[in-house]
Amino acid sequence: MKIRSRNGGRSVRCLAAAGFLAMRLAAQDPASIWKALSQPAFDSEKSAPVHNLTLVRDRIQITLAEGVIQFAQPAGGVVFGAAFAGRGRVQLEPASQAEKQQLRLFLKRDSLDLEFTEAVFCFADNTFEELGGQVHWAPSADTRLGRLYHDRQQEREDAGAELLPRLFQSILSADRQRTALFSADLKTKEKDWVHFRFDALEPEEITVGRWTNWDGAIRYDAWLSFPAGGRSAGDVFRDPLAKEGFQVRGYSISAAVTRNAELHAATKVTLDHRAAGDRTLLFGLDSNLRVESVKDAQSGALLFFQSREKKERNQSYGDSIAVVLPEPARSGQSRTLEFQYSGKRAVRKVGQGNFFCESYGWYPARPNSFAARADFEMTFRCPRSYTLVATGSKVNETTDGDMAVTSWKSDIPLAVAGFAFGDYKVYKETTDKIDVEIYANRNPDQFMQAVGDSIDSHLPTGPLAGAPAVGTLSPAALVKTMGIEISNTLRLFEKFFGPYPYKRLAVTNIPYSYGQGWPSLIYLSALSFLDTTQRQALGVTQHVVLTDFFRAHEVSHQWWGHRVGWKSYHDQWISEGFAEFSGNLYVRYRKNEKEWLARLRQDKQELLARDQHNHVYESVGPVWMGQRLASSESPGAYSVVVYKKGGYILHMLRMMLFDPRGQDPEARFIAMMQDFCRTFQNKPASTEDFKAVAEKYMTPTMDLDGNHRLDWFFRQYVYDTGVPHYGFRYTVQEAGGGKWKVAGTITQSGVPAGWKDILRLYIRASNRTAPLGWIATTGTDTPFEFLLPMKPEKLSVNESEDLLAEIKQ
């Protein structure tokens, strides 16, 4: 590569400087740097009064109006922190209407303008040079600002924030521009401490929010998150790994689980460096698992730093591990790291022969693994009296003394891997070349056992006896039924979405009320393994939700999340919303149309319900906001909006593509879904990727903008909020010649001007209701008029919940 310069000597000097920087960084002592960052000492010589100093990071503008600032002593020659006390002001204009809507949720206004009295800054950019060059030093022995920095850092760590390892990563990097970091914690009058960050390694570099207590734990409220420089999220997530310094290519895991629920593991991680200059690699690992060593195949033992161990179940000090390389990485370089670790709480004993194995965090991983894939080879040891099942295909099974040893290998690269073990009754059957395996505990877990004992103890005895006992509540009782139902689910989804992506599907029970769909391994709540009588005895009324819908939702994740991943949190509705749709679809075919419509209407009711702060769930934010919807303002909004509305969005597209007069009314929708799966086979997809596929199959009726695009639909239902209200009025008059004239108006309200929809019109004649056609609405009032060859008994819209709307007719 040639380097052009107006001054050839300057190029040589730049290269020499770069080489010197690399040597200086290689000579740094990482342990001393980590200690300096985690136990910061402030420099009494670097204290100064300030007056109207302004820091600008993209749209963040921080003004230190009046007060005192003091800087930390350097770590590895880099000044990384400062604290301020006095008067200040922070201002920010959100980058989009969607971000303004989120800010309104937290601040009740469209732009951010807050005053603050204290500030703590962490940085690995030019902040020190920028501010230091504008002040006159006034040495001070006052230790208050140093204590302020330390206390705030401790509060962040107690909340699970991982700023410290990220700062460490940047300071050790040979490319500080690529890894630049700036953060400011500002103590405001309105909202206490608010966190502002510019992180060059994030696709959305700008984030604003605060840590606060909600849902029983300290969590982060994400007020704002957007790319710097005026770029769109679609642009920066087009390649979701663009800023990743490395990519994991494969895992080789050797793990042992004991009767006492201890996990011991040696995990080899093979990775490829995508960028030059990194000396620190950050991984996620449950801090209940304590790392004993990290080795490099070439360099031997490596230095590492891990988050503090959790003390309580709801307490988190972060789940990160920072591994230090002996020298800066080279782009294209490959390496294999071996982690040795063990711990007690990642696997929990929850009853006789019952264990709960965490699906996340039991091996070192990178965030958003669903945007990437890796090969997995895993060997597990567990007591011979138990059975272990894992993702992938079982390639070997032996015994070693009183331990059973099984080996598993992924047939194709996977986003994640998991396992389960216990005293299982196993049922197997083969359907359409897919091996279905059910692993059900022979005994109930502790919670189910306690509930069963409590119910049985209150049953009448003697002459009044006769009420049915709930039995042992053992998941094993329904093992065969579960196998048959899972097989039926697979058949339906293969018809709609295309081939199942793996060779086998294993299903097991877990002792909680949720489920998890991992590639070829599904964890289902033990409640779904109970029969109707047992569920009724437990007071459960929503039987379909816990059985047909729940099973189908989790099975469909084999397609939504695994066969097709997601590029960013903005696109996660493609997984959860599509799985919600799939669960409802199975209810339609397994039960009947009445039950299916009841599920859809229940979803709509939940979207229009209000949370504890009186927000209508649907209005909290668009589906596209993903997990940012969960906050102290509306803790349940993510699960309601992303799941329920995400599923409704796909349902609406299905109904628009449904052709009641076609040989197969579902043909166009099925073609779209199978095309989407083929196109993004074992790859991540974005919302715009799905939109592009949907536009290939849209009908002329759907082309409300006249450009063969679905901009109007995605703008309204994916990228924005709103549920339209429609009034439907009509008259029928005899028109002569055996024809009848229908005239009426559809009125629209509850949504912004310019909202567009198509409403399917239904006719009832001869005691049968059938689709008649479509009416496009593009304004407040839409008149319509047409002739019919008979007098209808009734005309209606939205009979099949074709549209997420409130209808008055």
How would you characterize the overall build of this protein?
With 809 residues, the chain is of the alpha+beta class. It contains 17 helices and 37 strands. It has an eight-stranded antiparallel beta sheet, with helices on both faces. An eight-stranded mixed beta sheet has the order 13-12-16-10-9-19-22-21, with no helix packed on it. It is globular, with a radius of gyration of 30 Å. The chain starts with 7 loop residues before the first helix and ends with a strand. The model is unreliable at 1-27 and 458-468 (pLDDT under 50).
Give a quick rundown of the structure.
The protein has 809 residues and is an alpha+beta fold. The protein is built from 17 helices and 37 strands. The strands form nine sheets. An eight-stranded antiparallel beta sheet has the order 1-2-3-4-5-6-7-8, sandwiched between helices. An eight-stranded mixed beta sheet has the order 13-12-16-10-9-19-22-21, with no helix packed on it. A five-stranded mixed beta sheet has the order 24-25-26-28-27, covered by helices on one side.
